[in-house]
Amino acid sequence: MVVFTQILGYAARQVSRNYLRGLFMDSLRLHVKGGVGGMGLPRFGGIGGRGGHVYLVAKEGETLKNLSSKLKVHKIIAGEGGNSSQTQLLGKLGEDMTIPVPPGVSVITDQGVKLGELNEPGSKLIVAKGGIGGCRETGFSGQKGEALHIHLDLKLIADACLVGFPNAGKSTLLKAVSRASPKIASYPFTTLRPHIGIMQYKDLRQISVADLPGLIEGAHVNIGMGHRFLKHVERTQLMIVVVDIQGFRLSPKHLRRNCLETIVLLNKELELYKPDLLNMPAILVVNKMDTENATEKLNEVKPLIKEYEQTLATVSDEIRPEKAFVFEAVLPVALRERNVDEIKLLKEKVRTVLDLHAEKKAMKMRGEFPDSELIEKLKQETMQRIPTLV
Asked: One digit per residue, pLDDT tens: the chain, 390 residues?
């Protein structure tokens, strides 16, 4: 089990309130209710109109924050079905309610039942059915519609995500490789809400990268940012693990973790949250190589990272994960220096790993298996020699 640091008080005071005041919202609870069916007309066998349904539809550009602000109350009720009459034996259908939501939303009831997901713009999901109109089977009495509380749980969709402890340099990296402008400062929890940047290439290729709130020990059980961060990792294709060569220490009250320990702890947190995430390809970025004794520390940790799976056998049982990261490339950088060659190499590696793993996935879906030539290409393209730094 991960060694938990005493951070509950710190995280709650310093992060949660500021986060909730932010512009980003990734969860919203609504009460939805289908319309009541119209009354039937026993004398003539008339059937009442069905009550309206409540639908959710994915719309590009929509946000949960915007949806919340547009609703006076978080209660959505569809229209009632029309009553049967002598002049209209079939009552009118109740008006359906269609609610726009951002792509990437999962819909879950208060009881934990997953109703569905809306991942593509235009996709539609019924969340509360209207009651049937009065008819012979119901004694010509219109029936109530479904009523339930639902949670709209947004998981960001991006090609790659930045994973790391606070202040490792994730926001600096995003700013360097894209036009995104996340807030950057020299204190933990710089990122209070997710940011997405777009890496652009000369051939007009675009790759989206999500910068997410920093992990801390215990995040898998919702300490600190907890699941508010981890759930966003699930819908990306590549993890870019960012670590500080000097290690990490949340505050003077907490243990200092060296560079290798931060990698191991990130590995463990992801495994405890959802082991399948470790099947995702990963790139390791060792940042802050412009700091004191960085080269010496890199030389110490370099062979341990190279044989990372074997290295795990030597770490404490308390922090050792069962399944290891598989790094496709290891890149030492000094992001604050904004070195053009380093940034270019990083962007090339991200693109190469994404493309090659997409090809492997496509071959698997076709029932094919990568041949030795493709496997060798993958190894050659993602192989990165750590340079000697002066």
From this structure: 444 333 333 333 333 334 334 456 778 999 999 999 999 999 999 999 999 999 999 998 898 988 999 887 889 999 999 999 999 999 999 999 999 999 889 999 999 999 999 988 999 999 999 999 999 999 999 999 999 999 998 877 789 989 888 888 888 898 889 876 544 434 334 444 567 889 999 999 999 998 876 555 444 444 444 445 667 777 789 999 999 999 987 656 667 889 999 999 889 888 888 888 899 999 999 999 999 999 999 999 999 999 999 999 998 888 899 999 989 999 999 999 989 999 999 999 999 999 988 888 778 777 776 555 555 655 555 454 434 333
Please, is 388 exposed, middle or buried when counting C-beta atoms within 10 Å of its C-beta (0-12, 13-18, 19+)?
Answer: exposed
**Cβ 279 vs Cβ 324: under 8 Å:** no
Contact 142, 81 (CB under 8 A): yes
What is the Rg, in whole angstroms, of the alpha carbon atoms belonging to the chain?
A: 26
Q: What span, in angstroms and rounded, lies between the C-alpha atoms of 122 and 119?
A: 9
Contacts of 71 (CB under 8 A, 6+ apart): 30
Encode 79-107: b = buried (16+ Cβ within 10 Å), e = exposed: bbbbbbeeeeebbbbbebbebbbbbbbbb
Q: What is the pTM of this model?
A: 0.69
Hey, CA dihedral for 331, 337, 341, 347, is it positive or negative? positive
Strand, coil or helix: 77 = strand
Closest CA to 268 of 317, 231, 304: 317
Specify the residue for token string 């990568």. 370
Residues 128 and 145: beta-carbon distance below 8 Å: yes
